[in-house]
Amino acid sequence: GNSVTQMEGPVTLSEEAFLTINCTYTATGYPSLFWYVQYPGEGLQLLLKATKADDKGSNKGFEATYRKETTSFHLEKGSVQVSDSAVYFCALSIVGGSQGNLIFGKGTKLSVKP
Amino acid sequence: KAGVTQTPRYLIKTRGQQVTLSCSPISGHRSVSWYQQTPGQGLQFLFEYFSETQRNKGNFPGRFSGRQFSNSRSEMNVSTLELGDSALYLCASSLTTGGSNQPQHFGDGTRLSIL
User: Fold this and answer.
1) E strands of chain B, at which residues?
2) Which among A54, A75, A84, B25 counts the fewest CB atoms within 10 Å?
3) CB–CB of B103 and A49 under 8 A?
4) Could you read off the pLDDT of A52-80 as tens digits, one per residue?
5) With contacts defined as CB-CB under 8 Å, which chain B residues touch A51?
6) Could you report the per-residue pLDDT of B68-90, keeping only the tens digit for each?
7) Do A41 and B108 touch (CB under 8 A)?
């Protein structure tokens, strides 16, 4: 079946540290891949996306590359800020079904300390 | 362009009551999906509506229902509330249905607490 696996959190980093949040997926066909971010008390915001193999999505200093050979879509940022503290969700799109159109990982909570 | 609007933001109910949550999608978006978010289960898909028709349904009991109006606004209803229904309910809209590379845009959610 279709699924997304994210690294367990929480992840605690100091400001300006390098961030990697691992995400791997299992899917039939060729899904699009997304990273969403959820700040405290808010809904999910689309952070970046990639629609085909070797695509690199980027936004606000975050990057992720769609790796078909390793079925991965790891999120990276070179220098995190306190304002990046949030929960990050990796997701893939599928065509409907009982899981809906988007399959989410369980989320990784990031805390950045000054 | 206005985002996805969910009302109310907070609700407190007691067991056995029913509740209706509302979602107004981004203008022009025809697909609305609902999710339940809890600390233990994460994000769980409830259902999706497109052009007033339910397209997909998650594995929730029949107490959870929804509908979509001709202007794409959607409501979800939960009857006979249970303590375990306490959660953040998120609504998301997108231009079309059926996966593809169309991202979903989320509202800020309705926080439902059952006493």
Assistant:
1) 5-7, 10-13, 19-24, 31-38, 42-50, 53-57, 64-68, 74-78, 87-94, 105-106, 110-114
2) A54
3) yes
4) 899 999 999 999 999 999 999 999 999 99
5) 101
6) 999 999 999 999 999 999 999 99
7) yes
